TrEMBL record:
DUF6596 domain sequence ranges: 193-290
Superkingdom, natural source: Bacteria
Pfam family, any one: DUF6596
The protein's name in its UniProt record: Uncharacterized protein
Organism for this UniProt entry: Luteimicrobium xylanilyticum
Gene Ontology molecular function: any one: DNA-binding transcription factor activity
Disordered: region residues: 92-113
UniProt cross-references to Gene3D superfamilies, sorted A to Z: 1.10.1740.10
């Protein structure tokens, strides 16, 4: 389940609004606190879900507590104790496992999670433990630490929802059965565990601004992912952790200019006055810290690309040659489909549209259902004066569900004069 999956469909409006906001803002911290305390991720999820249900029953009549997150934390801990002591758990697990920490018996009514250590990073490293299947580590972090529901996690990793849900359940059982310790690993263990942690934070940021999430969820998740990346960078002093934090700061800086009047604004057309100068400065500082610490990795190179684009706010122009060199270096390190499509676009801006189209032609088969492939192809065909641009753009529109992006592409399609979309769907 995800953070907002805990919410039943009906509740008193005021109580529901307060609870939604609390769950959205505090789910990851609350779950991490509970899981690190009891050592059982599934148990912590169940207890937190019970606390949310109790809030919906009691808050409408008793009023919203002064500290809603603290109230949920207190109730969930007490529910955890009940579950640990239940006859069902005593008969299914050794008696020693049913003993909760000695300090758990008394909890103040206004327990404040913000006054307690932030256990989210510990939980992320738990999810990256060698005992967990590598393919489910990042999805598990997305769901448990950042509250992304299983359907969105499945979509992000191109896996059926039922399949992903089964994998997540198995991974949580594995954490419990293998008695994985809830702690940040020693420095010698970090090289094995850090990459999936960074991927999960990056994935959360991407999902946070994806076409499938609602506006408030998108904003909350993207901000939380960026903050986690900065915390990781400050704690670990690792080059790629610094690169990821820089990347998310620099990317976030432009989000306020990304959509105007409900329509996507391409990067090159964005008003730089709408960019967040503080986030740009923070990102540049993190990127400088990462520079020179060995061979740049994927996140450092992506951050450097963001920096090259953000420089337009100072210089009034984009250094296309530098952007192309960075794209080439990035594809050498991480030859993803998205990276190769972006390289084609960058090549076209320096060497002409036909050079970019040559690179896209190689990607025709993997790009058949990939929206950026068709949007980029349409751009380059139009720049080359090729009438096939309209058909490619129509295909891109068909593959776009994000409303601002779709509106932008539809306007471009109309400006090109359009093409018979029925024929394009079979392309």
């Amino acid at each position: 389940m995800g953070a907002l999956d805990l919410m039943p469909p009906t509740a008193a409006p005021d109580a529901r609004t307060a609870l939604e906001g609390t769950v959205r803002a505090s789910y990851g911290r609350l779950l991490a606190l509970l899981a690190s305390w009891c050592g059982d991720l599934t148990l912590a999820e169940d207890a937190l879900a019970d606390a949310v249900e109790r809030a919906l029953r009691t808050w409408p009549s008793a009023g919203v507590p002064r500290n809603p997150a603290g109230w949920l934390h207190r109730v969930a801990r007490r529910r955890t104790l009940d579950l640990l002591r239940s006859a069902a758990r005593r008969t299914s697990r050794p008696l020693g496992d049913a003993v909760a920490p000695a300090s758990s018996g008394t909890l103040p009514d206004e327990t404040d999670p913000d006054a307690l250590p932030d256990r989210r990073l510990e939980l992320m490293f738990v999810c990256a433990h060698p005992a967990i299947d590598p393919g489910v580590r990042a999805p598990l972090m997305l769901q448990t630490v950042l509250g992304v529901d299983a359907s969105r996690v499945a979509a992000a990793f191109a896996v059926p929802t039922a399949t992903m849900a089964q994998r997540l359940v198995r991974a949580k059982r594995r954490i419990r059965d293998a008695r994985v310790p809830f702690r940040v690993p020693e420095r010698a263990e970090l090289p094995r565990r850090l990459p999936p942690v960074l991927e999960a934070v990056y994935g959360a940021y991407t999902v946070g601004w994806s076409r499938t999430a609602g506006p408030r969820v998108r904003e909350s998740l993207a901000v939380e992912a960026r903050e986690l990346a900065v915390v990781l960078a400050s704690l670990l002093d690792d080059a790629e952790a610094l690169g990821l934090a820089a990347l998310l700061c620099l990317s976030s800086a432009r989000l306020g200019a990304r959509v105007v009047d409900g329509v996507l604004v391409p990067l090159d057309e964005q008003d730089t006055r709408l960019w967040d100068a503080h986030l740009v400065e923070q990102g540049e500082g993190l990127l400088r810290l990462a520079h020179g610490r060995g061979t740049p990795g994927r996140f450092q190179l992506e951050a450097a690309l963001q920096s090259a684009h953000c420089a337009r706010a100072r210089t009034g122009r984009t250094d296309r040659g530098a952007v192309l060199r960075l794209h080439r270096a990035l594809v050498d390190v991480a030859p993803t489909l998205g990276g190769r499509v972006a390289l084609a676009a960058a090549t076209a801006r320096v060497e002409g549209p036909r050079s970019g189209l040559d690179l896209l032609d190689v990607l025709a088969e993997p790009g058949r259902a990939y929206q950026p492939y068709w949007a980029t192809r349409a751009d380059l065909l139009a720049a080359a004066g090729d009438d096939a641009a309209g058909a490619a753009l129509a295909r891109a529109v068909d593959l776009t569900t994000d409303v601002p992006s779709r509106r932008y592409l539809e306007r471009r399609h109309a400006a090109l004069g359009g093409a018979a979309r029925d024929g394009v769907r079979d392309a």
